[in-house]
Amino acid sequence: MLEQVLYALVTILVGVGGCLAYFYGSNLLLDRLFPADAVKHDRAIRNLKVQSTVRPWLFLAPALLFLTLYLIYPAIQTLIWSFFNKDASAFVGLDNYVWAFQDEQFRQSIFNNFLWLLVVPAACTLLGLIIAVLTDRIWWGAIARSLIFLPLAISFVGASVIWKFVYDYRGEGQEQIGLLNAVVTWFGGDPQVWISMPFWNNFFLMVILVWIQTGFATVILGAALRGVPEDTLEAASIDGAGPFKIFYRIMVPQIMPTIIVVWTTITVLVLKVFDIVLTMTNGQWGTQVLANLMYDWMFRGFDYGKSAAIAIIIMVAVLPIMIWNIRQANSEQKGGH
Amino acid sequence: MFKSMALTPSRTILHLIVLALVLAWTIPTAGILVSSLRDKNLISSSGWWTALSTSERAVTLRLKGAEAQIEENGQFVIKGNIFEDSEDRGTISSWGLGTRDPRANPVGSAVTLEDGQTLAIQQNGDYVFTSPTRFEEGRGQRVSLIKTVPPSFTTENYNSVLHAEGIGRSFLNSLTVTIPATIIPILIAAFAAYALAWMQLPARGFFVAVIVGLLVVPLQLSLIPLLTIYNQAGQALGVTPKGYVGIWLAHTGFGLPFAIYLLRSYIAGLPKDLIESAKVDGANDFRIFTRIVLPLSLPVLASFAIFQFLWVWNDLLVAMVFLGTDNEQLVLTGRLNALLGSRGGQWEILTTSAFITIVVPLVVFFSLQRYFVRGLLAGSVKGG
Fold first, then answer.
1. Predicted local distance difference test score (pLDDT) of residue A335
2. Within 13 Å and on the Cβ side, how many CA atoms surround B174?
3. Contacts of A66 (CB under 8 A, 6+ apart)
4. How many CB atoms sit inside 10 A of residue B6's CB?
5. ipTM of the complex
6. In this structure, what is the dihedral angle of CA atoms B134, B140, B146, B149, given to the nearest 10 degrees?
7. Region B140-165: what's the mean pLDDT?
8. Burial A271-296 (b: 16+ CB within 10 A, else e)
9. Nearest CA to CA, how far is A313 from chain B (Å)?
């Protein structure tokens, strides 16, 4: 144990020290090789030019290295391997994709992912909007917001345990220790095994992600709502618009760009959802999703080709959002400096 | 929007709605916290929401046997306390003979039984059992009771989980993974962010676009090739491919797009005059960055650090892929996942482990919420 702590400390020192040494050393080297002072005037200018051409690359190099090695190269490799067989030894063309769309499990996953995409971003955004508006009108709103925000700090696995406890099922006649079944039996209903209830169990898993992400939506949308000019709202209320009309005719359109950001952020998250399904059901009882299916084929099927094909399909689903984001960033850059 | 304190009917409804929402969001977490502090038998026999009320339980206990009888005024008497041999006491509200209805007789007054015997049981368990004839040899009379137990909490679950279930070990593993994986990317990202915000660079827009694009790339895309690289590197260097260095670097790589994006949008927003005037004074970019930009960026660096800390601490996928699922190296999320499989119904273990897993993020979150929110806003609203 002590050994592990020391090992970690040493690596932090080596890692951070290495970074510092690189940045400091490379910049010093640049200054020494192309000195700007203590040389003749025209030489100094030339050296300054060299410095300002090289230095950005010194700053960027480690980041570019990491991004290339950990994201760009693997993405390309995955795309290539999706056209290869199990152990990447033979080219199989589109076989993996053809397999995917004929596979029962895969279709189930696509269908479930689609359900998640329909429900979770919408639910989070709507709840976030409602909570942001309501908590803005009461004196203890900040406390309420931070309590609703709190699950965002909890891991998906931790959240799964929390909700598995809520969904716990005991046979009829026994005392229910799961909150949901206790409530159901209190109202005179029969206890249910929520986790394996066909089709609807998907929604019980979605509740977990909605529970986690609503706080995110609340904070972002709340900030945007506070940015809506006071005058506009006053003018509307003088014109006789009721609170609901003000909300969906003035506030919502004003913060539409933010709503889209929240929606797309949660959409990307939903496509990657893995932990919740793995820990709650591991894809059983018709709850499989793409990310978990991909993990299954990678570590239980040991099939790189199929696994890579599923990863690419997830990427294709994210692609429109990616392009939209890049366009957005580009137009803002042109507007900015 | 003005905030009024006056309670009109519509404002009361508003308060109630918000209260209901807050309760819906906090009750699930409260459930595992309360359960982790309860006795394991209580967890499986009653809902956690009953933990604060006194609970009623039916138990069957024995009086003392005939050997304890004494003769008093021509009667044979057995006296004692019914809880003598059992550890958990309580307040008795009613009792019944044998295993029959435990609510048959009230406490306090003596009740006449068959053969002229009488039995009186007090709330605290003291009893007097009398008989006109000598008690026959044998074990004591069985009595079933309704007893109410005051709310009681225990840290027993924490003791056992930390030591027996390997949670303590995993806690250390999680720290070992998280701290370097939080610190290493900061410096790398900060330099890159400054370069992309303020330095003359061909194709700067292109690089920013790439960063924005990489923000949403699913991690799943990277796993297989990286695992192959790691295996090859491990073989070449003669070390195991599943180690801490590997996961630190992986988290650094995966965290960089967001780090650069967040830091760049902040650094780009610093006053232009500040940087230009430093340039006029002859400072080069390295000096400007280390002397001016870095100190000014501390708030956003803190924001990112919190994000990355929570992300890495809460991550399951990267840990499972790059550290493996060996007992020795399991991080908390991985351990919890393993326990869900092996300790399925044992809620005392699961709730306690889950609470230990989430306690660090909750503390970080509550103490540094301001930075967290600031980072969240900068990262998703402004952008650019």
1. 56
2. 27
3. B188, B249, B252, B253, B256
4. 5
5. 0.86
6. 120
7. 79
8. bbbbbbbbbbbbbebbbbbbbbbbbb
9. 10
The model's pLDDT over B302-333, given as tens digits with 9 standing for 90+, comes to: 888 988 998 899 998 888 888 877 777 888 88
Q: What is the pLDDT of residues B89-102, one digit of tens each?
A: 778 888 887 777 77
How far B230 CA sits from the closest chain A CA (Å)? 11
Residue A207: both structure tokens together: 């509740």
Distance in Å from the first CA to the final CA of chain A? 51
SS3 A91: strand
Burial code (b: 16+ CB inside 10 Å, e: under 16) for B165-196 equals: bbbebbbbbbbbbbbbbbbbbbbbbbbbbbbb
Residue that is written with structure tokens 């970074």 in the block: A19
The amino acid present at B147, given as its one-letter code, is K
Task: Supply angle C-alpha A267, A273, A278, rounded to 5.
Answer: 160
pTM flag (> 0.90): no
C-alpha of A15 from chain center: 27
Q: Helix A141-149 vs helix A104-135: angle between axes, to the nearest 10 degrees?
A: 170
Q: Contact B224/A55, CB-based, under 8 Å?
A: no
**Which of B224, B251, B332 is most worth mutating to test chain A (most A CB atoms within 10 A of its CB)?**
B224
Q: Torsions phi, psi of B80, nearest 5? A: 170, -170
Question: Residues of chain A whose pLDDT is less than 50?
Answer: 336-337
What is the mean predicted confidence (pLDDT) over B48-52?
78
